[in-house]
Design a protein that fits this description.
heterodimer; A: 2 domains; two-stranded antiparallel ribbon; 13 helices; B: 5-stranded mixed beta barrel; 1 helix; 5% helix
Amino acid sequence: MPKVAVIGVGQSAFVRGYPGSIRELAFEAYSEVMKDAGCGPADVEATVVCSSPEYDKQRSPAGVIAEYCGLNPQPTFYVETLCSSSSTGLKLAYSLVASGLHDSVLVLGFQKMSEITSAESQERMGRGADIQWESPFGTMMPAYYAMHAKNYLHTFGASHEDLARIRVKAATYGQINEKAVYRKGVELEQCLAADPVSSPLKVFDCCANADGSSAVLVASEEKAKALGIAKPVWILGVGAASQPVNMSLRERFNGLVVAEAAAKQAYEMAGVGPKDIDVAEVHDCFTIAEMMAYENLGFAEPGGGPELIRAKETYKEGSIPVNVDGGLLSKGHPIGATGGSQVRTIVLQLRDEAGDMQVKDPQIGLVHNIGGVGLYGNVTIFGR
Amino acid sequence: MPKPEMDTRFAKFGTVSFTAVTKVNDFIGYLEEGKVTGTKCKKCGEVFFPPRADCYKCLDSEVEWFTVEGTGKLETYSQLMYAPIGFGEDLPYAIAVLDYGDYKVFGRIGDVPFEELEIGMEMVTRANELPNGNLNYVFEKA
């Protein structure tokens, strides 16, 4: 397989109520990625635009965004896998470059969640589940993850305090990430005393909605050389999987089999294992999601997640630093932009450019990005 | 020629239904009779809950109905303190999954105090009429 590199990354600040339109929001990440790679529009052979369409009034946003970024007449198209849209976009971009069809492809993710109210947003996100058989009972994303949390805590004898520790970690790094929407610290007691949302999950177990955009520029080895990219980051492994939407068809609730399947593919393709990962970004839309990710990615045995966080092994100085940019919990979760933002963090880490969040000398990084309640699982592995 | 009349019974499913027309509309007819039902492929015997009109294994659409009977084990649950639009008056309520062995059922907890719920407890699935006249099914203590 030909080598494929990430040659540039960009991200807008993640904010509440972005004061502009979706094309302007997308342009923030676009201008940053182009400056980062030292490229112009002529260096982009195709654009994959990624978001979750239920938030947008604009139909088929790829067209207006390509126009606004000066990316005509190159091909552009739209992909969607809920919260993992831009990881799916990255997999596509990888394939387009590895196949030799294009030398460079831009993955542009965005979401302006503030176009609608929080209640509307919950209802629409809920419709990312089974609308025929589940939504009529009044389901929401927090409730689905809460059912996983309830079963997880019961199966492994863990407590809500273990979940809360994950939020405390996220907030530690959200404070030092200038692009995060939630910049405050969070104490363990605060998490435990917070209002319940859907038992056992409380307010601080849930990620922050945000508006934001992200951009990842992918290129062939030749193109990276021709552009004189100083620190290309290589895509070593890509994995993706799906599982049934309906909860009645789920094998178990104390983990996401879709993440295990995607991880297995990515590890095999990269020729590495969990112990080789120096820094990881995992999909912590809820604290329980990060806990399950520890185990589904092999950072801990089943039931070993709580000990990993109690021992602070997933902090920056630990054996496997996870979400040292604040994660979705503190950085924010603008659906279509999230995967690209995770990739950006890992790329900056592997280039030793992550500033205060920098992990010591990482060689291999991993991104775990989940769409819906484990409908879509994506794991991507990167190396220097 | 008059348009053929559409069978929109599924619009009656749950507090708010998002689907009106489906090939498994008889599910609502059975709920009206007090039965919660799934389907079974007549060819390969595969059991489906929620019910399906088509068997993906046989690529065949000959299915028969069966009634969810006996008890299932409570596999997981959660009590919601916030609700999506249209469900606010139902709060607080709990959703859950029962494991019947051959299949699982996702639905809502009925008239059971939340603190009495326990993973592993045996529960039954019961057809239920909602205050707005719609129908769903709920889990009760066995």
